[in-house]
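Lecture notes, continued. The same structure-token format from the folding unit now serves as the input rather than the output. Read the line below as a description of shape only.
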């Protein structure tokens, strides 16, 4: 079985069994959709009329919130069960959401420069080459388009177990190529999924080399000092599991100003 077949099956199972990652947006969350999506104020004040690609974000959360906020939404995801939630929820709410079953590293069904925003939750760990994903996103984004993404941090993926002193063991080499082996501590891994470690050189360097500038970088806090030993939030005290990036597509127009961090974005 290829990594795509394995991950499709794993995510179909997760969606069909009601995983926390397959939870549709609630009425409460839809009241202020942009605040729900973006506690860090990375999005423009309005996304009304913008073309938004929710990449590898089936499950009826991101797509519904962007659509409620007035964006024209396309969701690309590998899992038919995850996409079924987007279709079910958008139909129930009378929203228009386009769903496409495909892998994030081949977006050939989407035209060049057709999106203003690409929003990608944690998912690049499921493909071997993050550079291919970034190249596709750079192609489909318009000049100055926004790319918001979250990824698994490499050190967290290197952790394999907890030792007798309740410290965490970095049991997988940083320069590993190919799928990650299974590990006794799989708190930040999905059951039966095939995952890959992307080094910082890839997570950040490949992004810059694909034609983006990084405007912000955050590490979502998963440490909880009241969590019992062994809990995933106890583990979060030792190594942050995720990194969130705000990046902007550099303009292709020769001679135009490069985007700057404090530029006010007017789509
Ligand atoms: C953590 S879930 C993200 C969805 C969820 N709405 C969220 O907010 O967390 C990761 C998603 O990546 C998808 N996925 C895995 N491999 C993929 C691939 N190669 N191409 C596109 N999507 C993929 C899964 O089907 C799953 O829906």
């Amino acid at each position: 079985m290829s990594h795509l077949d394995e991950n499709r099956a794993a995510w179909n199972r997760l969606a069909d069994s009601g995983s926390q990652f397959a939870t549709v947006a609630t009425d409460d969350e839809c009241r202020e959709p942009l605040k729900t999506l973006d506690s860090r104020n990375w999005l423009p004040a309005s996304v009304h009329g913008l073309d938004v690609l929710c990449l590898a974000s089936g499950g009826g959360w991101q797509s519904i919130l962007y659509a409620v906020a007035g964006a024209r939404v396309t969701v690309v995801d590998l899992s038919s069960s995850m996409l079924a939630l987007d279709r079910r929820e958008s139909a129930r709410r009378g929203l228009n959401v386009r769903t496409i079953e495909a892998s994030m590293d081949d977006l050939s069904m989407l035209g060049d420069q057709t999106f203003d925003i690409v929003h990608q939750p944690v998912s690049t760990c499921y493909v071997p080459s993050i550079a291919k994903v970034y190249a596709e996103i750079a192609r489909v984004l318009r000049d100055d388009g926004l790319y918001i993404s979250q990824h698994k941090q490499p050190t967290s993926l290197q952790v394999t177990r907890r030792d007798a002193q309740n410290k965490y063991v970095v049991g997988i080499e940083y320069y590993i190529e190919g799928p990650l082996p299974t590990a006794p501590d799989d708190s930040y891994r999905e059951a039966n999924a095939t995952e890959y470690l992307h080094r910082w050189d890839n997570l950040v360097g490949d992004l810059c080399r694909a034609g983006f500038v990084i405007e912000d970088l955050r590490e979502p806090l998963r440490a909880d000092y009241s969590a019992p030993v062994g809990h995933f939030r106890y583990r979060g005290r030792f190594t942050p599991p995720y990194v969130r990036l705000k990046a902007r597509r550099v303009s292709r127009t020769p001679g135009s100003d490069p985007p700057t961090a404090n530029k006010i974005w007017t789509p």
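Point for the exam: The pocket of S-adenosylmethionine is lined by residues 4, 7, 11, 21, 56-59, 61-62, 77-79, 82, 103-104, 121-123, 126-127 (CB under 6 Å).
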